[in-house]
Each structure stands twice: as C-alpha cells, then as structure tokens.
Amino acid sequence: MIRTRGKTQELNMRKVWLALLIGLVLCVMTSGMAWGEDSLAGDDHPLDEPLEKCLEGEGATSTQATVQCYMSATEVWDAALNDAYKSLREQLDSESAQDLKEVQQKWMAYRDADIRLAAGLIDGTIRQVLAAQAEYERTRERALTLESYLGALQDSK
C-alpha cells in the first residue's frame, strides 16, 4: 500500500512539473517570443496590428475570442503568403517554379503536423488557442520567408 501511495505521489509531482512547464511555454509563446522566430519575422509588422489590438481588447475576454483573433490574423497572413507565392512563381523559371511548388506542398504538410502537435500538448480549451496560435505563427513565418525570397530575386535583377 505504501508503495502505491509513493507512486501516486510521484505521479502527482510529475503532473505538477508538467503543468509548470506548460505554463512557462504558454508565457513565452504569448509574450511574443515565439520559438523558432528568426530575424525574418521581426518584432513589428503592420499586418500584426489588428491581432495585437484584438488580443488586447475583445480577445482577452474568452478562449473563443482569442481563437477568433488568431484565425482572423491567419487569414490576413495567408493572403500575404498566397500573394508572395504567386508573384515568386511568376518570376521563376519552370524548374525553380516546380521546386517552389513541391516545397510549398511539403511546408503545408509540416504546418498541419505542427498544428496537431501544438494542439496535442495539453488538454482543455487552451488547446484551441495553441492550435490557432501555431497556425498563425507558421503562416506568418512562411509569408515572410516567401516575401524575402521575392525581395532577393528582385534585388538580383
């Protein structure tokens, strides 16, 4: 009986440590210090202003409101991503355009898997926020990457 109680206490301590770790991860993620964010992403971008305002206002009222803020911001960045992709593809030779298409398809598979991972980190309604935030961050990062490729291509001409 004592041995079982010890295992139960050990399991409870592990849950406490896991909760603390997840809390720390959420603090880092929501403070704008997203993991994997590089110099391309930068801190400020005009397309991020509506998200910041939403999260400071109505997005702070509920989980669903926060999710909606991220979903709206993702739509904006997805449009920027698609514009950059189309512009880049139009300027590439056929072989490079095919490479871009293949890479983009692989990126979409990565994005989807990464969102599933983020959503699976924790149970409860916060999982919706994590999934929405992950989709926003991945879409934003990819849009900025494609825009940087487009800028480099235009600079080389």
Automatic annotation (TrEMBL):
InterPro entries for this protein: LprI-like_N
Domain Lysozyme inhibitor LprI-like N-terminal: residue ranges: 58-146
Pfam families in the cross-refs: LprI (PF07007)
Transmembrane segments: none
Top-level lineage group: Bacteria
PANTHER family with a match to the protein in the record: PERIPLASMIC PROTEIN, PERIPLASMIC PROTEIN-RELATED
UniProt protein name: DUF1311 domain-containing protein
Organism: Oceanidesulfovibrio marinus
